[in-house]
Amino acid sequence: MSNRDVCDVGVAGMAGTSTKGKVYAGVIVALVALASVIALSIDSRFLYMLVYVWFGVIYGLFLQYGRFCMASAVRDLFAVGVPRMAVGVMIAVALYSLTAAAVTMAGFSTFHAHPLGWHIIIGGAIFGFGIIFTGGCASSSLYKSGEGNVGSMLVLVSISFSQAIFVASDWFSGLVPESWTQSALEKGMPEELTITSTWFDQFMAGYIWDLQGGTVAEMMGREGTFFGIFVGNALLGAILPTFAILVFLYIVAYRKGYMRRAKIQNPAFGDHMRGMWSMFTSSKNTALAGLGIGIFAGLQMWTTGALRDYYGIFNFGEMLEDMGYYTGISIQGTVFDPGYWYITTQEAQWGGWVLNKLGVDNMSNIFFGLENGLPNPLLNAPGMMSIGIILGAAMLANINREFKWKLPSMETAIFAIVGGTLMGIGARVGMGCNVGAFFAAVTNGDLTGWIFLFGMALGGYLGVKAFTWWMEWRASRSNDEFAL
Amino acid sequence: MAMKFEKSGDGAYMLNVTGYTCPHPQMYTKKALQKIESGSVLTLVFDNPSSGESIISMCESEGNELFERSDSGGTFTWKIRKG
């Protein structure tokens, strides 16, 4: 019997299901349904926000099912030589790229390519270094919070406040190159914005806005066509790079163990094909989760697009103002409203909203004041999606008897706060996290996502080195022969 | 709760990493398996479900046998024989 037979092929349902857990899961669904009914009875237009909530619940189920974690993908490869999650994420990228292409082809896509610049690799490396210490990426910190992991909840708090402070404070303004300041001034921004006072504002207006970007289809001049979208974006932009990475992972991290288990001394081509297939199937739940998320992210884009048409709006901010909620809306009348799967920006808004209520003036910057706003968390549609993710993950974790309130040790708590801060800063410099800057980018034919992944892998490698050094140093200080 | 690794009998060891999230459980497990003799049994106690996935793969790739598992309220106890 193999290790996987013993573990019931692992992943979802590692410990079987529980009746009590199913009751808890039912209670969670009932509470979300009740809150939805209350919201609709206040104003039927809250349907727009409830779409985010319920899609969030679905994403949470998939994330917990597949243990979808980019931190694990990078870290397990470098720290313990296990490629399973990296393989799962890569297969998920290939599958998701096809659903993203279908959504683009149908005209529902709300995706915009990211600008290309050095910030991506630097932001990715800071983010990648941070995720080694937090034990989870932006998306897995949400699903792990749903498993009762208080350390992951601390990571969310840390990501929220670090971003909110980073985008609005003038602590680093002395590091701004003169060229950014000049370029930012030339943009002629509204007087309400203090465009040259913070590092992040000048980074945005004086650097990011001057950069160009585009999907593979756009670079080929074939945007909007089947060839550009399916061949350019999906095949060239996502599937072929994915395949190359999978072959690399097989060679460096899977082949040797597989041949030993299969007792093959001189492998032929067919043996390697079977080895590759074995590697794929060992990651199938993560890949299935990626496919599911891809399909539902497409459906969410379509649903949100249809509702925008129905209500005659471009952005949820207009609807909030129509409903009489004027606070926290940007000077353009907008709030953050991506229309699909996103993680870190709404977390920045949570932290920013709390600081704002504590008296901090943080609405005169580009991030909150011009673009994303600072709505009350109860009126923050993508924020409610993140709550939905936590609740969806909590449902499945309860059903599978994997829910447990887990208080962090002091070391884990400190790592969560420091690592979460690095993740927050990295996400803002890199213009997104493992979802917005990598997953959503590469699956839509935006090659900057692969640069973010490279940066994240580099940061992750250095993070593993630092983490291993820390463990060795701690063990060396102990006289216990069983110190690890 | 701090990590605990100890010899629990002849050729038997116990590693308790409850309260630890990734990457601690899998890294401690790897180090513990490196430290014990071939044929010995490591009883691993942990409560971070996703670490279990990494540990299964690690055992497979390094030729260690996971031969028993049980769970209680989200805490998992696995027995691994070093290959």
UniProtKB/TrEMBL annotation, chain B:
Belongs to the sulfur carrier protein TusA family. This is SirA family protein. Transmembrane segments: none annotated. Residues 15-39 form the UPF0033 domain. Pfam families: TusA. The lineage of its organism: Bacteria, Pseudomonadati, Pseudomonadota, Gammaproteobacteria, Chromatiales. InterPro entries: TusA-like, TusA-like_sf.
